Amino acid sequence: MPAKTQPGAAALTDAERATLAAVADCIIPASAAHAAPSAGDPSIAAAIETDAVRRIGTLKAALAALDRAAEDAGGEQRFADLSGAARDAVAATFRARDPAAASFLESLTAQCYYRDDRVMRSLGMDPRPPHPAGYTVAQGDWSLLDPIRRRPAFFRPDGRS
User: Among 39, 61, 99, 136, which is 20 to 30 Å from 18 by CA?
Assistant: First the structure.
């Protein structure tokens, strides 16, 4: 029987979702001190999956490589089934073997993690878009632009390149 996928999701299997949540936990663990969830939290993991829709092949390949690294480390276990210390060791091996895939997972995880309202609140930020309320920005020294203003125009006035 094929693994289930969520309707409208990025077509990860349940096993791939478990691996994704496990590696996201390794990348950004929960913080009790800051009342912040881990990146493996179900809503954050779902955001990671959704954001990866255009790069689903890359995500699936990275998750498969993690599972292979777990098997190579001594057993028939998937990455998600490993204990904390074993998981960290496999993640370190994976990072050394495939830095591009590891960097992809880290970047995608961080982007989604810091969009989560709970994380924004834990950082002392209001979880809202910058507009329409906007944010106050300190005024800078506008005189720094004077040399640019004095420079002769170097573009074509008709707009051609």
Answer: 99
